[in-house]
Design a protein that fits this description.
NADH Oxidase, 4-stranded antiparallel sheet, globular, binds flavin mononucleotide
């Protein structure tokens, strides 16, 4: 396969993983490679404003899983009818099953006080962290691992759990682990929650045109 075809193949195979974790430990060399992929992501002013905390302790994994279960219930209470019934069937995390959580933090003090390119757009730091997460996700896919991004949590809870100082913002809990396989169809599509919108619905010529966007 050509290099470009391999890259597109990984991009298309990448899936958010919840159910497929086997619990087999991730090889240290593989973990180092996917973290290195994250660490060479683009970042505003080359600030590299990320931190990665590896969580494997069973008690910590369970504590976080319990918190996420509460937040899932809080979200479920905002739904009714068909949405509530559909959501009931959707798994939103594989925290304990994966055996490894990578908590990604954003440290806005990295790169000093005058980060090149961030003076007008403070969020550019956060965007950089998300680029690192995507690199990690694609590298993990290429390595045959599953990744599940969990966002059903309160930031203060996760900050305390992993000991981030006040100025470091938790951006993601990533469940990372060996999998039996990756689903071809995203869970949210499979369970009828939502479908990927067509590309045409988000393209605009020259200027944004309200109403040309088919995606709702
Ligand atoms: C910022 C962000 C937060 C997410 N939070 C969750 C989550 O809490 N639980 C979950 O199961 N999936 C979560 N996801 C995964 C999405 O549901 C998933 O990416 C989407 O359904 C498309 O599926 P795919 O990633 O397999 O293509 C999150 C994804 C992103 C980018």
């Amino acid at each position: 396969m050509q290099q470009s075809a391999q890259l597109y193949d990984v991009i298309n195979r990448r899936r958010d993983t919840r159910r497929e974790f086997t619990g087999e430990p991730v090889d240290d060399g593989v973990l180092h490679r996917i973290l290195s992929a994250a660490h060479c992501a683009p970042s505003v002013g080359m600030s590299q404003p990320w931190d990665f905390v590896m969580v494997r302790d069973a008690t910590t994994l369970e504590t976080f899983r319990d918190h996420v279960t509460d937040e899932r219930a809080a979200y479920a209470r905002t739904l009714d009818g068909e949405r509530a019934a559909t959501f009931e069937r959707i798994k939103v995390e594989g925290i304990v099953e994966s055996g490894l959580g990578i908590v990604v933090g954003y440290d806005p003090t990295r790169g000093g006080p005058n980060v090149l390119g961030r003076h007008a757009i403070a969020d550019a730091g956060l965007y950089s962290v998300v680029c690192a997460i995507q690199n990690l996700w694609l590298a993990a896919t290429a390595e045959g691992l599953g990744v599940g991004w969990v966002s059903f949590y309160r930031e203060e809870f996760l900050r305390d759990l992993v000991g981030f100082p006040e100025h470091v913002r938790p951006v993601a809990w990533l469940c990372v682990g060996a999998v039996s396989g990756l689903p071809e169809v995203p869970d949210l599509e499979r369970f009828g929650w939502r479908h990927r919108s067509p590309l045409d619905g988000v393209l605009h010529d020259e200027r944004y045109q309200a109403g040309s966007n088919l995606a709702t």
